[in-house]
Amino acid sequence: MNEAEIGRRVAGFRKRLGLSMQDVAKLTKKSQATISRIENGKQTPTIRIIAKLAAALKVHPFALLSDDPVWRFAPPETACPDGVRRLLAYFITEARARQNIPLTEAARYMGMGEGEMEAIESGFSLPSKSVTEALAKLYDETREEWIFLRELEMRHPALSLRLSTLCAALDATRE
C-alpha cells in the first residue's frame, strides 16, 4: 500500500461523510496541513494517525490500509489500537518472529485469512480464546500470559487506556 492510495482512501471516506479537512484535523487532533499531505500522498501516516483517522472517518483502520474489500465493511468498533490488545498483539508478533514463521503460514495453520492474522498482530482485532491458545501453542509460548491479557481486555477495557504509554514505549523499541 502506497501513500497515494492511503490518501485517496482517506479523502474518499472523508467526503462520503461530508467532512472537511479541517473537521478531520479537529477530530484527529492533527493539523489541516498534515491531513492535506496525507490525502495528497505526500506524507505516510503512522499507525497511530491511521487509528485516529479511522476513528474520525468511522471505518476500520484496515479500510485505509488494505486492498481487501472486506475491511471497508468491518465495523470500526472492532478496532482498538491501544492498550491490552496492542500488548497481546506485540507478544504474538514477536513470538512469530522468534520462531521464523511467515505470516501466511501462521494464518494457514490457524485456518484464517492473512488479513485476519494481520488484524490480530496489529492489535485491531482481539483473537478468541481458542485462537489465542492455538497461537501460543504454535509459537511455543506460555499460554497463561496471553489468555490473561485477552481476558483482561474483555473484562476491563478501561485498563487498556492506561496501557497506552506502555504501547508507545513498545512502538519506540520497534522503530
Characterise the protein shown here.
With 175 residues, the protein is mostly helical. The chain folds into two domains: 3-76, 434 Repressor (Amino-terminal Domain); 84-174, Orthogonal Bundle (434 Repressor (Amino-terminal Domain)), CATH 1.10.260. Helix content is 68%, strand content 0%. The chain has twelve helices and no strands. The chain has helices at residues 3-16, 21-28, 32-39, 47-57, 61-65, 84-99, 103-110, 114-122, 129-138, 143-155, 157-162, 164-174. The longest helix is centred in the middle third of the chain and has 16 residues, at 84-99. The two termini are 19 Å apart.
Name the helicity range.
55-70%
Order of helices and strands: HHHHHHHHHHHH
Strand content: under 5%
Structural class: mainly alpha
Instruction: Give the termini distance in whole angstroms.
Output: 19 Å
Report the CATH architecture of the largest domain. Orthogonal Bundle
- Structurally, the number of domains stands at 2
Instruction: Please state the overall shape, judged from the principal axes of the Cα atoms.
Output: elongated
Task: Please provide the count of β strands.
Answer: 0
Low-confidence stretches: none
Write the CATH fold name of the largest domain.
Answer: 434 Repressor (Amino-terminal Domain)
CATH homologous superfamily grouping of the largest domain: lambda repressor-like DNA-binding domains
- Summed over residues and divided by their number, the pLDDT gives a mean of 77
